[in-house]
Amino acid sequence: MGILSLGIGLGGIAVEGALLHSVCHSLTKCLLFLLSGNILARYHTYSSYDVRGLRWTMPATGALWTAGFLAVAGSPPFGIFVSELIILKGMLAEGAWLVAALYLGALAVIFVGMSVAVLRMVQGTRPLDMPARLRSRREPLWSILPPLALAVAVLALGLWVPDWLWRFLETGARLIGG
Fewer CB atoms < 10 Å away: N or C end of the chain? Predict the structure, then answer.
């Protein structure tokens, strides 16, 4: 919400970046919520501290969880990176150098903070306290395909924003006042 507010508050092209950010962030959050449901079903805990070794117990979910983290943290080539870059471009176009520096610093802190929890969950040791039947059970395809489709969509928006979507975002930006 802070990035959206910042983009809309700056005006200009940053508004279009904020609207693209809302689209990409929504898709990415859906991806992560679906994956967290997969993790909850396997680990039976709401605590990220109790989840470790996803790469061993749930390789597809672990890979998508890592991709989702990279997407939501604004790493290239995902759509959130593009939206954050457009917002940064808007800051620089407005001459808001200090705001741009603080923005980049805050994004770096968020990336590091999130990576600690996510990497521990994915790369942690194989959970020995989990029953063997749960450790070795294959992930159902129906639990992987929807998050995979969302991950592909967020990746695609990082590589190419369709003309119809960009025109829609431009119209929205004009209505907001950007």
Answer: N
Place of tokens 């998050």: 147
Instruction: Please give the backbone phi and psi of residue 46, each rounded to the nearest 5 degrees, phi first.
Output: -95, -5
Inter-residue contact 6 to 103 (CB < 8 Å)? yes
Interhelix angle 13-43/163-176, nearest 10 degrees: 110
Q: Give the residue extent of every domain in the chain.
A: 2-176
pLDDT tier at 78 (50, 70, 90 boundaries)? very high
* Contacts for 63 with CB less than 8 Å, ≥ 6 apart: 55
Helices assigned H by DSSP within the chain: 2-10, 13-43, 54-57, 59-72, 79-93, 97-123, 132-136, 141-159, 163-176
Amino acid identity at 124: G
46 burial class (0-12, 13-18, 19+ CB within 10 angstroms)? exposed
Tell me the torsion sign for CA atoms 25, 171, 176, 89: positive
Amino acid at 62: G
Q: Which pLDDT tens digit goes with each residue over 25-50?
A: 999 999 999 999 999 999 988 988 88
What is the pTM for the complete model shown? 0.91
Amino acid at position 147, single letter:
P
Residues 6+ apart with CB under 8 A from 102: none
Two tokens, residue 101: 């520096």
